[in-house]
C-alpha cells in the first residue's frame, strides 16, 4: 500500500534512516535550550524557531488529512519564542514528537485513493494548497529534512 511507503519516508526523515544523512531528531540530539534559542546568524531563525515551525506545519498537514481543509498552521507559521528554559525546550521537543506521531497516524488511515484527493481546488504556494495529499505528505518529509539541514548548520555555528 502506498500510504505505508509514505509513512516510511516520514519516519526516515523524522527519526529513521534517512539516506541523505541525519534525520531531524538525530540532528536535534544534544542541543540545549540555550543553544536552541541562539541566533548565530543575524536576521535568521533560531533552532527553536525552526523546530516550532516544523511542528506547526506537521499539525497543519494532519489537519488537511483529517478535516479536508487548508489553512496556515493554527499557531502561526513562525512563532516568537518567549520561554527559553530547559523545561520549555523539552516541551517543544515533545510537541514535535507528538505532531509527528499524529501525522503518521492520520496518514495511516488513508487509502491509496485518499492520497489522490486534492487539498483544495486552486494552487496556493503560501499554504501549500492545491496539490494532492500524496504530494503534501512527500513535501512534509522533504520539509523536515530541509530544516534538519538548516539546524545542522546552526548547530555547527553555536
Characterization of the model:
The chain has 158 residues and is mainly alpha-helical. α1 (2-14) packs parallel to α7 (133-157) and α4 (47-67) runs parallel beside α5 (86-108). The mean pLDDT is 93. The protein has one domain: dinb family like domain (Four Helix Bundle (Hemerythrin (Met), subunit A), Up-down Bundle), CATH 1.20.120. It is built from seven helices and no strands.
Name the overall outline: globular
Number of helices: 7
Spatial gap, N to C terminus: 43 Å
Main sheet? none
Over all CA atoms, what is the radius of gyration? Answer: 16 Å
Estimate what percentage of residues fall within beta strands. under 5%
Approximate helicity band = 55-70%
Structural class: mainly alpha
CATH architectural category: Up-down Bundle
Count up the domains.
Answer: 1
Task: Indicate the CATH topology.
Answer: Four Helix Bundle (Hemerythrin (Met), subunit A)
**SSE order in H/E notation?**
HHHHHHH
- Mean pLDDT, rounded to whole units? 93
- The parts where pLDDT drops under 50 for at least 5 residues are none
Number of strands: 0
